[in-house]
């Protein structure tokens, strides 16, 4: 039985986008929690790693499964099997683990995370939820299954009032006024 709560994977079931702002050590469980988030913004001091083998155990909250999808098999194997802290902010960004590096203080990083959240909040809420589901489908299934899921989700957006408003706003060259329906 795992000593960790079994609900960690429920983070990925949250329909709203989750943004991680990392500016320090995200090791072991901290790295695994970051991997569960939708967007990772890395401060200049961010360091990612899976040092569990140094403790005689392995990552237990999805690290062996998610890290390989982000940084590739060889890099994930080296990180996990040596327990070394390899990914600094720049490498995390270059390898696709982090969205980008945010220069400055912790406050600058948090402000940027809030800014990204604000940009997302301006979009149609149902469309954001649907887009997140489509991307997660690609992450968790085969290409063919993901394409089927995307097609079905795309079709579902045509029933949204926000899709109609978005298209009208585009044609009329104005900002959309989404009603989140």
UniProtKB/TrEMBL annotation:
SUPFAM superfamilies per the UniProt record, alphabetical: ClpP/crotonase (SSF52096)
GO biological process terms on file: fatty acid beta-oxidation
Organism superkingdom: Eukaryota
UniProt-listed Pfam families: ECH_1
Keywords per UniProt: Lyase
Cellular component GO terms, alphabetical: mitochondrion
GO MF term list: hydro-lyase activity
Family the UniProt entry places it in: Belongs to the enoyl-CoA hydratase/isomerase family.
Name used for this protein in its record: Enoyl-CoA hydratase
């Amino acid at each position: 039985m795992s000593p960790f709560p079994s609900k960690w994977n429920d983070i990925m079931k949250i329909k709203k986008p989750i943004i991680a702002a990392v500016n320090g050590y995200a090791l072991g469980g901290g790295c695994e929690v970051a991997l569960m988030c939708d967007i990772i913004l890395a401060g200049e001091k961010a360091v990612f790693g899976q040092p569990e083998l140094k403790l005689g155990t392995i990552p237990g909250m999805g690290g062996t499964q998610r890290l390989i999808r982000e940084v590739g098999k060889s890099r994930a194997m080296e990180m996990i099997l040596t327990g070394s802290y390899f990914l600094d902010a720049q490498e995390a960004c270059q390898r696709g683990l982090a969205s980008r590096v945010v220069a400055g203080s912790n406050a600058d990083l948090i402000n940027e995370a809030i800014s990204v959240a604000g940009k997302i909040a301006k979009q149609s809420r149902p469309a954001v939820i649907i887009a997140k589901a489509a991307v997660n489908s690609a992450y968790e299934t085969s290409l063919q299954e993901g394409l089927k899921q995307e097609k079905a989700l795309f079709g579902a957006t045509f029933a949204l009032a926000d899709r109609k408003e978005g298209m009208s706003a585009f044609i009329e060259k104005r900002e959309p006024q989404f009603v989140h329906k």
